[in-house]
Amino acid sequence: MTSEATIIFLSLRIAALAMLIAIPSGMILAWLLARKEFRGKFLLDTLVSLPLAVPPVVVGYFLLWSIGGNSWIGKAWESLFGGNLAFTWLAASLAAAVVALPLIVRSFAAALQGVDPQLETAARVLGAGPWRTFLTITLPLAYRGVLAGVLLGFVRALSEFGATIVVAGNIPGSTQGIPSAIFTRLSTGETGTAWRLAFVSIAIGVAALLVHNYLLNRARESNTKSSENTR
Amino acid sequence: MITFDLRLARQNFNLNVEGEIGRGITAVFGPSGAGKSTLLSALSGSTRPDHGSIKLNDDVLFSSEDNTWLAPERRRIGVVYQDGALFPHLSARKNIEFGYKLTPAEERKFQPDQLISLLGLSQLIERKPDQLSGGERQRVAIARAIAASPKILLLDEPLASLDVARKMSILAYLKQIHEKFELPMVYVSHSISEVVNLADTVIRMRDGEITGTSTSVELLLGNVPGETDIEKYSNQFEAKIVDSSGDLGLVEVDGVKISTPKLKGETGDTVILGIGANQLIVSLGKPERMSARNVLPGDIKNVSTENGRAYVEVDAGPKLLVELTENAVNDLDLKVGMPVHLVFKSSNVEVYLEK
Domain B234-354: which CATH class? Predict the structure, then answer.
């Protein structure tokens, strides 16, 4: 039986990798939704939010279909690295990333919308390319909202259960994070461990939400302040 | 010099303009929705037109024919926006240095410190934009744009949200910068009083088209429908304080002494004066024993009439525009070249800026 520390550490590792996947892709999607007008934007918006609206098990099933042994991604993975991509901790991270993505994209898009596009235009005219403009103007002005989105995404990734269990299983020491460990302990009657893990989940969740709300309030204040100044 | 020939179609708006912008100060004047800002954003690279071309000196910035479109960061065109668009997370100094640092060392023409002192920003240079007044923000925005060593400076209604005194002070700075750095400027405005005092050339726009190009004085004398600022037109010029100790001030401009309301500055300080065109009286002989403190001799340079109003331009040291009735012009038989005296009270002199 794996120790509780191992479970917590594995959970954090899965969620951290999920963030490494979801943050860059979420930022690109959020930027498209917040700053660009294009055909199919409405469709993209819907698609990005879909994991929020369907049961996580369905998301897991779809992922399994996309990266399982019979899919071309699965086959490509096998020929490159040997072995399966499904039922690894990487697959668990992927599942967590997909379910966290809608929250991240929505938070990022709101944060980017709070930045006056004219400031970006001004930076470009002053000689900054698109990347430098994003890194020196947009991101510093949106960082509170972005950070809040990352926190929200991170706790969502930590809590992921339904999609993970389908595409990555419930393998102790490999894909068994806090939620699936609680599930297992409950079914085997180890309620003491289950309670302790549940408490850890709640503590992380409460802490993350407190910081998240604090950041959003600060972001809102500074937005009102700067918009008052431009009037 | 910029030459442009642009067409752009949007849902409720078409821009169709052709023209050129020289080395002086060019004003683009017209009502809201005329396409002034769209023209500027096409020049600076923020809005891509559908057809046409833009050339800055010998560089092609845009050409729909060979599909050229230079990104804004590669144009070296400075822009000052209406509300400044200062970066709120950076201090005034960091704002000013933003473009300067991105300019290759060999292309840097203006030092931030030079601009900071020229625009009187030394005291507030470490402040964030939200700790600056509207006028201070615009001065920082001007310094920021110039520190990036642009080949031309575009100003998009930069003073629209400021009160008259601040406007005058910033206009004086702009004129000074233009003369000192020989920096061509394009100044967009819907206020004729701003335009005529600053610009040499005025491009008039309406409904997405250029309706004419003229000198500032021609514009002033012409019939510009919907423009009410004409009555308020005030002759503005710089003068040096000669005496500020008394209840009335005394200043000098081009060798002519003018009596003003009480001044706060020191002898030798520069001030900006404004005298409303309708506050000036024209006298044929030299008036003696008058209560009005200012009697300036001069020659008539231009006379024109429009809608029952007459405008007489008199060179009295400073060139002053006088608004009269057509009757008065006919009675006195005012003609170009005639020597006259301009009479006005010291209380009719507005002192806008004491630097």
Answer: mainly beta
